[in-house]
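In practice, a research group might receive sequence data for several interacting partners and want a quick structural hypothesis before committing to experiments. The following worked case mirrors that situation: the sequences arrive first, and a predicted assembly follows.
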Amino acid sequence: MNRRIRAFALVSLACFGLLLLQLGNLQVRQATALQHSKYQPSAYTGGPFEQPRGEIVSSDGVVLAESIPSTSDYRYFRHYPDGPLFAGITGYYDVTGSSAPYGMEAEYNHYLSPNTPVVHNLQGILTERTGTDSVEITVSAALQKVAAEALGSYRGAVVAIDPRTGAILAAYSSPTYNPNKLSSTDAKAVDDYYTSLNPDTGDSPLVNGVTAQRYPPGSTFKVITTSAIFDHEPSLETFVAPEASSISLPDTVLRLHNFGYETCGGGLAVDLAQSCDTAFAKIGLQLGAKRLYDEATSFGFNKVPPIDLPTDEVIPAVFPSTASFAGNIPGIAYSAIGQENVAETALQDALIASGIADKGTIMAPHFMSRVVDAAGNVVKRYTPHPWLEATSPTTAGEVRTLMLGVVTNGTASLVGFPPSLNVAAKTGTAQTPDSPCNDDWLIATAPAGPGETPTVAVAAVVVQPTGQCDGTGAAVAGPIVKTVLLAALGMGS
Amino acid sequence: MGLLAVGAIVVLSATLMASLATTDALPDHVIAFLAALVVIAVGVQVVNRWCVPHADPVIVPVALFLNGLGYVMIERGDPTRAGQQLAWTAIGLGLYTLVLVVIRRSRDLERYRYLLAGFAFLLLISPLLPGIGENINGARLWVHFSTIEFQPVEIAKLALVIFFASYFVDKRELLTIATRRFGNRLLPDVRALGPILVAGAMALLIIIAEHDIGFSLLLFAVFLVMLWMTTGRWSYVAIGVVVFVVATFAASHVLGQVNERITDWINPWAHASGTGYQPIQGELAFARGGLWGTGIGFGIAARVLPVSSSDFVFAVIGEELGLVGAAAVVCCYGIIVGAGLRAARRARSEFARLVAAGLTATLGIQAFLIMAGNTRLLPLTGVTLPFVSYGGSSLVANWVLLALLMRISHEGNQPVAVPAVPSWSSNDEATTTVAPVP
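A structural hypothesis for the assembly, expressed as tokens:
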């Protein structure tokens, strides 16, 4: 009988082994699929698509992201009504889980997904319940649309900020992508589309063109060079640059020449209005690398702006370290006019304009204005706070006055801002290291007249398409900024 | 003793975690609970040292651990039931002690075999008696005396195993040796097939009268295993399986419940919100648990699954403790079955051997049936998960079962002047030391 007892023991072992295999099958192999089953009880909140997520809503009440009941195995899928228009802001939430969430979807996932709110009082404990919250953002859907249409088919980015609060009013970049194709329940289609976006390349549409794409700032950087004069070397305020079309630089036979070999020079007001490269190169050499570096850093270069996007979607603007100029004195001259190794995001240039507009204070940029629960109670409200004290109110006032001159009798006069509106602006046309063409910039803020408080700052950067290399900041980026600025001020045509 | 301590610590921490997860506070009875665990562990150890010092030391700690885990899982879903479960554990352990004290020799049991058979029969039909019988969840398996509900079949299974063992050992030759010629084959006496037909009829009776497939399947399987162990004839198993399949097939056409269980096993998704709801919810609970589980107290199966504290307690464990915890529970049963079969191998008499093997098979098959039913490896049958599921009769019966197993284990391991344990290489049948009782 003992032989048969042993046989029975082996059969038992096999049965329990089978049980373990089936457990592995259910709990590991098929776990994800079963977790997403629509037959999961409604109490189950473990799967990302078992309950509707909260909405993302624009400042003018347009729903930018919503959950829609699905007939597939997933109970809900994410829908972005304006898809590509807001992709850089909303990001997307991948149902299939093959890629991590992006943008607001990731940043505010805690509120958008079912969550249990922090209890504030005794009654809260008794009525505690899990729900999703909606995130309201500062971006206006109408202005975003204007920005996208103004940028048109160009590759580039437009940002509009309220300098008083740091609220982003519009943030659009091109090329963009369709987040709906990444939140589809068809895993294969999602994967194909994701791959087609070349996610691993630096210029993939998935890379946020506003916050994670750097361009040489060109002459818009002269705002910082000018500010450095007032902050660090007031003696240069009265510096008069000799009229020249090119100048020699130390340690090199190469000459630095003006855009289009124009001849320019004069006092600071003229130099900034004309965007005189030779004059600013001389100013930069007299300021020296350290002062330029300090000023750039105080305006936010080499720091990641604290905007509410996932950290890997925001990069800092860069200004080379003081030490790197040690054997490269000509580099100082080029850096002073926003060339050499200086590069910044569209967001950063808008923040510079915003700092000048807001008496030298750069408010922390942000998208979220408030988080509201299902019952309409405000769960979280954004409180504006400064990011940097970039410069003193005096300096900011001086620079702002000089920037008004750029519009009235300088390089931005061609843009055609209405004479009734006091616009402070700076153009930029920068040589790009890896493109035969320039990139064109314009930063502007208004109303910027004496005694006025600017309510909007706009930056636009456009990468000139190959074959159309003859543009300038004013000619290409100018109309875009004008359209967005006027629309933001309610003066749109 | 070390094993007992480990088990007690795991159960205590599990209780604390469950309480923290559900109410954000330590349970107010934590000191009492700790004291109870210590008392139980020490008490059981004392009883074992006193009554069965040579018995396998692994069995009881593992069973206590399962008992404790079950308590925690039940407390999660239904605190009232948890209190009752605690009371039943105490009664179970009391009876465990009583059995060890009263039944000093396993062969004492043999004397009462017809008494036990009659007792089992009474128990089996008792749910059908008017006045005390009761329908619960579509099966008429319960009797109740005032407020106490009882599933007599749990106790009957023990009496039947003892009866079968005694009867088979007695009639072994008759059952084994072929005497009748059928065509060119020799078959055992046809009259010896009588018991199979009786058992088959009994199983059918239970299915039809009490609307339950789980226990009839369990009893029938145990019967076949014991018959096969006695005789070594596969023909009995084959005939038995055929009988059961035919009976089930017939039953599935007559009884809605059986038919339902089978179709829902094959494809529950076809009736996902209807009759397939339960099996699907079981599977989904396991999936929610994943590899590591949601953590004790963080699962939802205890709330959303019907009969989560009895039929689906394994799914609750799978959700909250994950693959790791569920596999640990499976291994616990593996350990008990292994220890039980080892006790059977070392048993001093053929009768004790068969009783130990039969009791172990009962526990193992029952655990397998319900765990396989939860994971949809087999159709769902409403048997309890031994020691873990809520249910007084189940708990008490399984503790008594362990007491008998411990007794036989003790006898087998007891040092004697002449070693009676047959070696593995020798022919088992030839070295049997105790002659069958005439």
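Before designing any experiment, note the following. Chain B is about 65% helix and 5% strand. Chain B has a mean pLDDT of 76.
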